[in-house]
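WARN no homologs supplied; continuing
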Amino acid sequence: MKEDYIKRKKILLVDDEAELREMVASLLAQDGYTEVRTAGSVKKALDLAKSWMPDFAVLDVMLPDGDGFDLLGRLRKFTEIPVLFLTAKGEDEDRIQGLGLGADDYIVKPFLPKELLLRIGIILRRYYKGENPLVRLAASSVDFERAEVCKGEERLPLTAKEYEILKALCRNAGRIVTIDQLCEAAWGENPFGYENSLMTHIRRIREKIEANPSKPVSLVTVKGLGYKLFVEER
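OK structure emitted
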């Protein structure tokens, strides 16, 4: 898998110190990561995780409305994304507790920026090594490296919104992705009022990926809930 595909993974950074959040987010951006969002509390982190669907999380242990261990346990109820603890609590029992809950790594503050970036990169490459940027559907395939749909001899470019919507659907292939989640993926933190726009983008996506857009078999509607994308086995 190409390195630039890893750098497009969504990273959620949770820490109660605003300056540290900004510093780490800046480090990640300078290293080429394009999608980083931050939260300063358990509640905000959970809200972001449920709506934005990150691919990776960096968690502090001490948070104003709980702790990172509890946050990880609550995250694990709906996602298996890799997690790294970045915290001032360096006691052995804290490390053991964090790793025992399923964290992939544990770094104690203060830390070396290069080490943090190295560990994040290692976890992402290990966790997503089997991921394929070419997703095959019934009548077409989606090439996320080139942001286009391959349909017979045609190559149909995806708009930025179509790309984000399809990426969210592919990440949850075979599962329902709610309208709110798709609006959040395409329009960011304030997705309200975009339901009609989403329907328009879904229609255009179907025109690109389906053999018969009027009778979709890959991107189907789940009435009252959202949409499902069915991908072909490799």
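Residues 113-127 form the longest helix (15 residues).
OK
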